[in-house]
């Protein structure tokens, strides 16, 4: 079921078309990644969905509501975590989160409870009295996220939430985003870090110059540039191994395009769409081949971007 629907969206700034007939849908309960280089139109699209920016043409609905007609209701459904950190330096962490949550009309007791929960969620529950100036960049980013989620929004929109953070905060942020999804929220997330998008997004839209280049799950996107992935399975060949029978059996399995063996590493070419790896592994076990390691080589989204646009992503 689609929770957010963007249809033929156009936004111009003078001569610049920041969003150019963009259409995509976000399913309820998924992490949706909006991926594109600098200036692709990601922030503009998010600002439109969150009703912060008006647009020239098209239609956007959130939870079935037209955002132009139901601005106030939609604002309550959404938690926005902006790219530029929006927190007050003179307020401590708890006061900051309470302030932002109060904008959504929480009563005093709910407010403190929800603010504490949000701070705990981002790993800052021991920093409630600390002011942003005494925090690291990563902690400030996490506080920024807490401010956007304390009112328990159904749709959480994060604009490049990991820019300039250390590896530990980055992992914390990514895990938090997954947890928000697992608790039932729908998440839209922008990035120009390919690896992050691959890591956490259920579906991905690649945009460039305000236009949709491709949209789908990672597998769907990858299958646009190739229909074969290579899997290397390291094993230990037993003395009585019936290699010919094994290879014949594997070759007959749906989706298998090729098999070869070298130095106890079995190389399989398998269909991206018809990924049969579970059954293949079962055959390894049936033939007494232990699985020591599995490595899969799939073209990266960097390659995909390059193939589709003729340009490097960054
Ligand atoms: N307020 C504005 N006034 C004029 N031009 C703007 C404004 N906001 C964005 N733009 C232009 O619109 C285009 C899309 O910008 P946008 O910030 O949406 O891209 P982005 O994909 O979010 O980029 P980044 O990754 O750098 O944040 C760019 O050409 C940008 O210069």
UniProtKB/TrEMBL annotation:
Gene3D superfamilies xref list: P-loop containing nucleotide triphosphate hydrolases
Any one Pfam family match given in the protein's UniProt record, by short name: ABC_tran
Coiled coil: none
Heme recorded as keyword: no
Superkingdom field: Bacteria
Gene Ontology MF: a single term: ATP hydrolysis activity
Annotated ranges, domain ABC transporter: 4-234
Sorted UniProt keywords: ATP-binding, Nucleotide-binding
InterPro entries the UniProt entry points to: AAA+_ATPase, ABC_transporter-like_ATP-bd, ABC_transporter-like_CS, P-loop_NTPase
Alphabetical list of PANTHER family matching this protein: LINEARMYCIN RESISTANCE ATP-BINDING PROTEIN LNRL
Protein name: Putative ABC transporter ATP-binding protein YfiL
High-level lineage: Bacteria, Bacillati, Bacillota, Clostridia, Lachnospirales
Gene name per UniProt: yfiL
